[in-house]
């Protein structure tokens, strides 16, 4: 049996509220995290990703009260990212109810953090988030601090290293496509799938069910993450899954 593909709503949180923008800018409030997470679970979401978008910039860990309240309101897996700088932060977020942690800025600055988390909590707990911006044909650069700072690091090479260090999953966001609803960066997803063996979560650009189909089939992603199309009520998770199933993509209905 083929592995089931996942559909994952993303909650970008700023000052306790879910927000959404375009290309990581112009963030506007959408609603309360725990309420939205519960609504998406009822629609059939496989997981929830909660990202504190200002935690790294402000030098703090994710808002633990928001994590706790959200985790108490759902039964599906919860991944939390933002401000994870060390093992103490990881432990605090997991104790607050998260099932997995997403690391980005801190992992780029100190790659050994990936190995430490994997050794202490297991690779299944480590999601390495990669915010990538296209710089040439089939070349992307890693950005950190919420997509604000370029690193000069090649995204494909960084993905391979992250997996070698113990990443159990990659959450890959195309900065160019984020919030545009123009579709995922299929080239980026395909290149990553050819170079790593861990599951890839596609992020950035979903505008309709066919974009998700492209990411899963043409891009060879294992899961699709989206925000705008769910937050603004354009599509439900169930509607997305029904479309994917009609196209032969294995999903949990």
From TrEMBL:
UniProt cross-references to InterPro entries, sorted A to Z: Aldolase_TIM, His_biosynth, HisF, IGPS_HisA/HisF, RibuloseP-bd_barrel
GO cellular component term of the entry, any: cytoplasm
Name of a matching Pfam family: His_biosynth
Gene3D superfamilies referenced in this protein's UniProt entry, alphabetically: Aldolase class I
Pathway in which the depicted protein is active: Amino-acid biosynthesis; L-histidine biosynthesis; L-histidine from 5-phospho-alpha-D-ribose 1-diphosphate: step 5/9
EC numbers on record: 4.3.2.10
GO MF annotation list: imidazoleglycerol-phosphate synthase activity; lyase activity
Catalytic reaction equation(s): 5-[(5-phospho-1-deoxy-D-ribulos-1-ylimino)methylamino]-1-(5-phospho-beta-D-ribosyl)imidazole-4-carboxamide + L-glutamine = D-erythro-1-(imidazol-4-yl)glycerol 3-phosphate + 5-amino-1-(5-phospho-beta-D-ribosyl)imidazole-4-carboxamide + L-glutamate + H(+)
Residues forming the catalytic site: 12, 131
Keywords: Amino-acid biosynthesis, Cytoplasm, Histidine biosynthesis, Lyase
Domain of life, source organism: Archaea
Protein localization: Cytoplasm
One annotated GO biological process: L-histidine biosynthetic process
Known partners and oligomeric status: Heterodimer of HisH and HisF.
Family: Belongs to the HisA/HisF family.
Protein name per its UniProtKB record: Imidazole glycerol phosphate synthase subunit HisF
Species, as recorded: Fervidicoccus fontis
Gene designation per UniProt: hisF
């Amino acid at each position: 049996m083929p592995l089931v593909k996942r559909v994952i709503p993303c909650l970008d949180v700023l000052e306790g509220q879910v927000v959404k923008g375009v290309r990581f800018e112009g963030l506007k409030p959408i609603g309360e995290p725990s309420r939205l997470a519960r609504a998406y679970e009822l629609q059939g979401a496989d997981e929830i990703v909660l990202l504190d978008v200002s935690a790294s910039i402000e030098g703090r860990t994710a808002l633990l009260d928001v994590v706790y309240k959200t985790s108490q309101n759902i039964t599906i897996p919860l991944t939390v990212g933002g401000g994870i700088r060390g093992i103490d932060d990881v432990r605090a977020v997991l104790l607050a109810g998260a099932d997995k942690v997403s690391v980005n800025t801190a992992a780029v600055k100190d790659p050994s953090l990936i190995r430490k988390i994997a050794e202490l909590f297991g690779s299944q707990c480590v999601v390495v988030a990669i915010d990538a911006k296209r710089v040439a044909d089939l070349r992307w650069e890693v950005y950190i601090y919420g997509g604000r700072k370029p690193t000069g690091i090649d995204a494909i090479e960084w993905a391979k290293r992250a997996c070698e260090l113990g990443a159990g999953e990659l959450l890959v966001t195309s900065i160019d496509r984020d919030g545009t609803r123009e579709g995922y960066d299929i080239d980026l997803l395909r290149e990553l799938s050819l170079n790593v063996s861990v599951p890839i979560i596609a992020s950035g650009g979903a505008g309709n069910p066919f974009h998700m189909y492209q990411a899963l089939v043409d891009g060879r992603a294992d899961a699709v993450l989206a925000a705008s199309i769910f937050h603004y009520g354009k599509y439900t998770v169930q509607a997305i899954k029904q479309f994917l199933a009609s196209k032969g993509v294995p999903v949990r209905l």
